[in-house]
Design goal:
- This protein is α+β, with helices and mostly antiparallel strands and 187 residues long.
- The chain has a domain of 125 residues: Lipocalin.
Amino acid sequence: MGNVKQFFSFSLFTISLTINSCSQVTNNNSAALASFEATTPCDDVSRSLLHIPSTDKCTMMKWALTLLTPTTYELIYTYGMDTAGTRGFSEGAITKKQSGKWTKSKYKTTEIYTLTADNVPSLSFRKLNENVRHLLDTNKNLMVGNGAWSYTLNRINPVKLSSNGTNSQKVEETFFTDSMVFEGRLP
């Protein structure tokens, strides 16, 4: 009988410990305002923005950006050579973590999110809507990807947008005088 009481006491202790541990994880995650992810090219501009050495072999990057409350962020990015025919990396991919402060500002008619950390250049993203952020170059222009990858970060858990909320930011009118060609891939 004593062994049964010890077993149940230990079991209740273990369950209590597990519940407390899980609630702490939930509380930490609740501080996240939004999480975004993307697969982007690893070109000269993105290398300079993230201080990736030119000697590191890199064709692709995967981003995981979490905006935390009140104004902190965490960016985890992995870069390296892609494996042909897959969405993964070949051996030797490098993962780095960056954290710091984020601010929101207006530039022309759009919202800009700027990430600032110690000892690295700041990163800026244009808010296209609640679910989409697009990386900007140092001149506040949208980064241009290629047929395989763009610089668009998508919200991991998208929020439902109203029918006219697809483009929540006013798009500046542009008049084209030449023909344009676009390329891309779809899942």
